[in-house]
Amino acid sequence: MIVYGIPNCNTVKKARVWLDENGFSPEFHDFKKKGITAEKLSEWCEVFGWEVVLNKKGTTWKKLSPEVQQNVIDQKTAVEVLLQNNSAIKRPVVEVDGRAVLISFSEEQYSAALK
User: Fold this and answer.
1) Is 45 annotated in the active site?
2) Where are the transmembrane segments (predicted)?
């Protein structure tokens, strides 16, 4: 299991605590330090949809220029923006056996998917 995110994100913290408390010991991939690939982002977009992977509610998205925001019209353009602004990725993303299974954090979703 791999948890992708950034360590100071409250949602990532909640997910990691839940995983630890429920007996999981995931590897943590800090995409601020380790980066993220276009291939990985595309995989996640295939699973969750690019509109979900791109966090439009976050500060990073809101700080982007209107021109940049308006140019995000599909998966390809979303991935391009996310590569340049990885704090705009919805997080955390949890992969099990190399497959993305969860995005963001909800105790109910984690329980259903992982127990």
Assistant:
1) no
2) none
